[in-house]
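ok so dumb question maybe but i'm new to this and my supervisor (M.) told me to 'just get the structure for Protein trichome birefringence-like 13' and walked off. so i did the thing. is this what she meant?? sequence i used:
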Amino acid sequence: MAVRENHHRHYQAKQVPLFPLLSLICFLSVLLALSAFRKTSAPLQPHQSIQFNNGDRSGRSKAARDGSCDYSDGSWNYDPNLRTSRYDHTCKEIFKGWNCYAANKSNALQIINWHWKPKQCDLPHFDPVSFLEKFRNTNIGFVGDSLNRNMFVSLFCSLKRVPGEVKKWRPAGADRGFSFLKYNLTITYHRTNILARYASWSANADGGELESLGYKEGYRVDVDIPESSWIEAPNFHDILVFNTGHWWWAPSKFDPVKSPMLFFEKGQPIIPPVPPDVGLDKVLQHMIPYVEKRMPPGAIKFFRTQSPRHFEGGDWYQGGSCQRQQPLSPQQAEDLFSLSNNRTNVEVRLVNEHLLKALNGTSFHILNITPMSELRADAHPASAGGKKHDDCMHWCLPGLTDTWNDLFIQHLYNIRS
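this is what came out, is it supposed to look like this??
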C-alpha cells in the first residue's frame, strides 16, 4: 500500500525493489523452521547414541530407573583395584565346595575383579542397608535347584554384614532361611529339582499301562503337583525367584533307559510316554498358573533363566574340566553354547527356549542372567570344589551370583518405582 502511495505521489527518490527482498526473508524463515523441526522430531539414526544422565542419588541412570536398559547386553571389565566389601569367604553359610578362596583356587581373588557393564546404562553393586530399609516387612523366597541356593547364599552373606540380629527361620517348608529382625525381612531357600513332585517308581506285579510297554523302573513325575518343599511358598512370600533346568538334562540323575522320567497327570500316566523336554513344558504349564493364582496382588514373581555350565572335554564324571582363568570372548561363548554345535553344555539355551515360551503372557518377570554368565568360564569352583571331578556348574562365592543379585535388586527397584 505504501509503495502504491509513493508511486502515485511521483516521488523522485530511487525506489528499493522490495519483492525480491521479501522473498528472500520468507525463504530464510522457512529454512529456519524446517531446521528446528528436524532437531526436535527426527528419529535417531543407527550411528547416533543416547547419553544417560544420573537421575537420582543412587547413581542409577534414567535407563535403569525406567526399566529401558537391557542389562543382558554388556561386557565384563577387569579392574585390579575393584574390591567389594559386601562379604568375604568367612561367611559361614557358604557351602564348602563353593568357597574358592578357602580352597585356594588360583584365581579366587581375581573373580571379583570383573564388573559387568551393560551397554546402555550401569549396573551398580546394590547397597545392603538401602535394600533392607526399602524392603522392610518383606518375605523373599528362592525356589529351585542348587543354583538358586548359590544365589540365595550370596544375598544372605551380603545382608549379614549389616548390623542387627539375624535369626534362623524356615517358614513355609523352606530348606533354610533367615530373618533380619530389625527390618522384619525374611529370605528363604526352597529346594526343588524339577518343581513338580517326583519319586522312585517300580513296575506293579499286577501290571499297568507303563508295565505293558516294558517299563520296569524309573521316576514318577506328577506334572500337576508342586513338590512339597515349596507348595506353600506362594501363600507366604511377597517376592519369589524360581528356576529349574539342570535336572531335566541330567542322564546321571534320570537315565533315559535305566531310570527314565515317567510323567503322570491327574494321577494317571501320560500315554504314550513323553520325553523330558515335553515333560518340562507340561510342568511349566501347571506350575506357573499355580503360582499366579496363589500370590496376592502386588506380589512380585521372577523366573531366572538358565545358569550355564562350562564343561570342556566331557561332562560330569566324564573328565570334563573348567580351568580357564578369565572370561570367554563372545565368540568363544557362542562356540561353546550354540545349539547348532550341540556340545556338552547345550542345555542352557535349550532350557531357556522352553522357559521363555511358557512365560510369555504371564505376570512373571524374567531375570535374564544367561548372557553375562555364559562368558564366566573362570568363575566355577572347578577342581577347588573338593570332588573327584571339576565342578563346572556351581559358582565360587564371592563371585558371579553377587552380580545376579545386583541385577535382581535393580529390577526390584525398577518395579517398585
